[in-house]
Amino acid sequence: MKLTNKTTIGEIVADDFRTAAIFTKYHIDFCCKGYRTIEEVCKKRDIKKSELIEHIEKARNSSANQSFDYKSWPVDMIADYITKTHHKYIEEKAPIIIQYLTKLCGVHGAIHPELHEIHTIFSKSALDLTAHMKREELVVFPFIKKMKSAQSKGTPFDLPPFFSIENPIVSLREDHITEGQRFKRITALTNNYTPPNESCATYKAAFAMLEEFDKDLKKHIHMENNILFPKAIELEKTFEKVL
After folding, report:
1. pTM (predicted TM-score)
2. For residue 64, what are the contacts with CB-CB under 8 A and spacing of at least 6?
3. What's the per-residue H, E or C state across the chain?
4. Cα separation, 223 vs 232, whole angstroms
5. At how many degrees (to 10) do helices 166-189 and 229-242 cross?
6. Tens digits of per-residue pLDDT, 177-196?
7. Residues in CB range of 141: below 8 A, 6 or more apart
């Protein structure tokens, strides 16, 4: 993909996920705010455009650590991957992290009161993400897979109660923005996931797990916002043309 002034950062990461590390290094949100262009983010963060593009090109031309070409996958395959990889990750890791944070608050909360806010934010995030994932798994993803099946077989399908896939996607993207804001706050409260010098093993493990959770969630949101959702919207339009 050739970079132009109109190329968005979401499109860049969708084309090659290795570039995600570059945007993360410059603290540029490529998942919830992937609609912005390189020019826009450079002006916003006072970054030299030529410098950012140079780093992006180096990442894209690297032969090491080749990533999956998710953009080439069909929508049903992407939906299944997100469910089996990222949804499963949240289901498995969130309870463990909450358990660690609860312990930290009890032992270190008096000296580090920020732990209580971290605990509150993450617990709410875990609860909301669970509801978010259920909406995807029970409603949105099945419809996307139904559209893909109908396209492959050349058969019609009934319109869903929400009429268009774009309607639930709006709500899901709003959820993503909320989670992005929450983890931005957690990142600040944890000093970019850096435990205090006197930290015990539990403290260090909790912060390491939080950082890993944040990274996985960013990739999760990116795959939905910048790859799956646009593909689903375009797929639905092909049926509109037939009708």
Report:
1. 0.80
2. none
3. CCCCCCCEHHHHHHHCHHHHHHHHHCCCCCCCCCCCEHHHHHHHHCCCHHHHHHHHHHHHHCCCCCCCCHHHCCHHHHHHHHHHHHHHHHHHHHHHHHHHHHHHHHHHCCCCCHHHHHHHHHHHHHHHHHHHHHHHHHHHHHHHHHHHHHHHHCCCCCCCCCCCCHHHHHHHHHHHHHHHHHHHHHHHHCCCCCCCCCCCHHHHHHHHHHHHHHHHHHHHHHHHHHHHHHHHHHHHHHHHHHC
4. 12
5. 170
6. 999 999 999 999 999 999 99
7. 79, 82, 83
What pLDDT digit, counting tens, does each position of 104-139 carry? 999 999 999 999 999 999 999 999 999 999 999 999
